[in-house]
Amino acid sequence: MELRRASGFTLIEILVVLVIVGLLASLAVVNLSGGARQQEVQNVVRDLYLLMQTASEQAIFNNQEIGLVFEETSYRFVVFDDAERAWQLQPDRLFRPRSLPEWLVVASIIDNDMPRLTDKDEDEIQPDIVFFSSGEVTPFELGFSTSDRIPAVHVIESEGFNGIHWQNPSNGPDKAVL
């Protein structure tokens, strides 16, 4: 009678495989956490870019000026009320105030030499960027990154006359003209 040798894996072989799988899984988690933050930056910038395009179009279609106000960790849209000669919160749900992640760094260059619709009063809302009913926009450049030590990864900009552009590092520059 012939004795068969039992086939299978030893405990040491199983433990070595588990250690290797564990190391690979931890590397994947570390890489994904950095990628998740970059994906979140892209989502935030995309949302802002699309809202800015929509605000510019709404300003033209509704023949009213729409402004964008940046705050420390948020932004909101306002609309100019001709009767009151003042900026007021945008009532449209689409343009509700939105918060920005605390770790997101926004560097802005905004041309403040453009004509203002109201005198600068400390109690009144003054938008940083205005989408005019004529189709013009306050010239600006907004850079977005995850740290103040890292140069801007995403840039939304407009020279005022030829629409709003988003320079997206993953897809190259988007030259959508409004």
Tell me the layout of helices and strands:
Layout: H1 11-61, E1 66-70, E2 74-81, E3 86-89, E4 98-99, E5 105-110, E6 129-131, E7 140-145, E8 154-158, E9 165-168, E10 172-174
Antiparallel strand pairs: 1-2, 1-6, 2-3, 2-4, 5-7, 7-8, 8-9, 9-10
How many strand elements? 10
Helix content bin: 25-40%
For CATH, the homologous superfamily is named as: minor pseudopilin epsh domain
Structural Rg: 26 Å
CATH architecture type? 3-Layer(bab) Sandwich
Broad CATH class: Alpha Beta
What is the CATH topology descriptor? Answer: minor pseudopilin epsh fold
Mean pLDDT: 82
Number of domains: 1
Distance between the termini: 87 Å
Order of helices and strands: HEEEEEEEEEE
Strand content: 25-35%
